Amino acid sequence: MTQTFTGGCQCGAVRYRFDQKPDGAHICHCRMCQKAFGSFYAPLVGGPLNSFAVTRGEIAIFHSSDQAERGFCRQCGTPLTFGYRDGDHISVSIGSLDQPEAFPPVDQHGVESRLGWVNAMGHRPDRPSTEAEQPDTAAFIASTNHQHPDHDTDRWPE
What are the angstrom distances between the C-alpha of 43 and each of 68, 70, 105, 155? Predict the structure, then answer.
């Protein structure tokens, strides 16, 4: 039996899988990735396009240049993919994988655009979770959660 690696968007409208383990996990600091993720950088991992399949829904595409395209869920906006239009490789956002812990970044790209304070983030103080600081708020969020679980479902919402 072939091992698969699955993931999808926050709302569950889009699900995907790799039929082989993605590799080359990295973070990209380039300005395009910062804007595409609305974040400090883009964490990405990928594999051959022929090992990747969308298993639910459809990935919307934005052509961020004449060469590159970025996929996202048109329902919830989750950044999902990055690839070159004529390429045979596709990358996915590490956070959209069902088991993102399995893909620690091994290097950094686009460091010319890295924000000056990013490297110090791991040294910032940790704050308690919402569950610890605001248990009533956390309980309400949990009771009204619309986020898809970190595994495939036959249908969503259930």
Answer: 16, 13, 7, 28
pLDDT of residue 2: 76
> CA nearest 56: which of 4, 5, 21, 7?
7
Mean pLDDT (the chain) is 95
What is the rounded distance in angstroms from the CA atom of residue 31 to the CA atom of residue 65? Answer: 13
Please spell the DSSP secondary structure of 25-72, one letter per residue.
EEEE--HHHHHHHTSS-EEEEEEEGGGEEEEES--EEE-SSSSEEEEE
| pLDDT per residue as tens digits for the range 38-71 | 999 999 999 999 999 999 999 999 999 999 999 9
> Is pLDDT at 1 greater than 80 in this prediction?
no
- Write down the residue that tokens 């383990």 correspond to: 21
Residues 145 and 154: their CA atoms lie apart, in Å, by: 19
Closest CA to 75 of 58, 62, 92, 63: 58
Q: What are phi and psi of 100, to 5 degrees?
A: -65, -25
Q: List residues bridging with 70 in a β-sheet.
A: 62, 82
Both tokens of 49, joined, read 């396009």
